[in-house]
C-alpha cells in the first residue's frame, strides 16, 4: 500500500491520533531519552503505520535492519511502536544488518531520498493504478 494512500485512510488517521496520545506517556519518554532522534513525530507515524497494516491487511511480520551501535535503527523504532501499541507484541520482527539484503548481498543505494528523478523510486498515477489492479 502506498504511504500516501494510507495517510488518507480514516483508520490510519485515528491510529495516528491515538499514537500521539500514547506518545505523551511511556513511548514519548523513550523517544525523549533518544538524544539522536530528532523527530519524535516520525517514530509515532511509523507506529501508526505498523498498527494500520496489522489491522487492515493482517500483516504479522515486519522486516527491517538493526545495528546495535545505533539508536535510530529499525529496532529502536519498532520498540517505540510496541510501547505505543501493545497489540504489536503479537507481530514478529526480523532484522538484517544495515546495508545488506536478507540473502547477504549488498543493498542497492536507498533511492527514496535520491534527488535525481531518474534514480528515485516513484510510481506515476498509471503505475499506481496498475499495481493496485494487480494487488486486488
Protein model, in words:
With 136 residues, the chain is mainly alpha-helical. It contains six helices and two strands. The protein has helices spanning 3-7, 10-23, 26-32, 40-57, 74-84, 125-135, and strands at 61-65, 92-96. It has a two-stranded parallel ribbon with strand order 1-2. The termini are close together. The model has no long low-confidence stretch (mean pLDDT 74).
Which features would summarize this protein structure in a list?
about 140 residues; about 50% helix; two-stranded parallel ribbon; globular; 6 helices
Give a summary of the structure in a few sentences.
The chain is mainly alpha-helical. Helices cover 49% and strands 7% of the residues. It has helices at residues 3-7, 10-23, 26-32, 40-57, 74-84, 125-135, and strands spanning 61-65, 92-96.
Number of helices: 6
Helix coverage percent of residues? 40-55%
Distance from N terminus to C terminus (CA atoms, Å) equals: 11 Å
Main sheet overview? 2 strands, parallel
